[in-house]
Hints:
- By secondary structure, the protein is an alpha/beta fold.
- It has two domains: 4-168, Phosphoglycerate kinase, N-terminal domain (Rossmann fold), CATH 3.40.50.1260; 175-337, Rossmann fold (3-Layer(aba) Sandwich).
- Helix content is 34%, strand content 17%.
- It has 13 helices and 16 strands.
- Strands 5-6-4-1-7-8 form a six-stranded parallel β-sheet. It has a six-stranded parallel β-sheet with strand order 11-10-9-14-15-16, sandwiched between helices.
- The relative contact order is 0.13.
Amino acid sequence: MKTIRDIDVKNKIVLVRTDYNVPLKDGQVASDLRIRASLPTIHHLLENGAKRIVLISHLGRPEGKLTPDTTLRPTVDALKKLLPEQAIDFYPLPSTGKEIPIPDNIKIAVLENLRTDPGEEANSADFIKNIIDAVHANVYVQDGFAVVHRAHASTDAVKNFLPVYAGLLVEKEVNNLAKTLQDPARPFLLILGGAKVSDKQPLINKFANIADNIVIGGKIAADGYQATSDKIYVAEDFDENAAGDKLDIGPVATGHLANLITDASTIVWNGLLGKAEDPAYATASTITAELMGEKTNATTIICGGDTAGFVENLATDHPNLHYNLVSTGGGAALEFLLGKDLPGLAAIEQ
């Protein structure tokens, strides 16, 4: 992929597709993980003389309607806190054929939620061209890894009008995930949790010949998943509530997993190991996150929205934890690992 390292952005207006699909609470950003993940690309563009950066994103599933719950305005407030030295402003999506009057002093402009217009999810060429023309963009940067598996206007149709380059977040995600498929340091451990076997079975099939060990936890294990290979370990004991519901993997399974984490040189974790929203049943997930985050001699990758969110919350109170990648792309990361074609990556200049 060609990235923003390969182009001269001096005095250019750069249109950047970010992923600011963040959780909101009481009208404010509850977790700014994805906003902070966009900062390396923003800093690079500013440091290399971009005239202006125009950020576009979606938030939630507005189905073409703008509401207090689907406006991107709270993300602008969060971005201003992260970049207090920059002139940042917020603008509505442009009307057809109209410019967006952005003053010369504004270095970063953020446009309203793309999905409040049906043209985004319809992969409308007219919709994205209208945005490009309205802000006079010269270059397009794809930095929204979480949406590269979608054939939408801002991931696919845009390639018809501007050259598309990868941002530093997309580069980081792709490089880390690709390494686990092509040349992982060994032993390679895959940890899978969550609730749906249908979501995880393709990963198990894919990595059966790549990983050295696969550990199955979560509701999948509690529901009696049957291993089909000696390298697959399914949790054998569980922490239960008073009704007998298996809500976390137990001490035997957690101990076995801890030993595998200690020995592993590459670890990919997708899916929580218990009902981790309840602290009483977050023990296995917490131990896993802490052991992975304390390893300095391994490649550690967290993927999946719930897992990434859990790890991010834990790291807030434990800043010493470090991971090579906490992926911002739930479905995109899984589809990449499964080797599926991703329209947003295919659109990037090679």
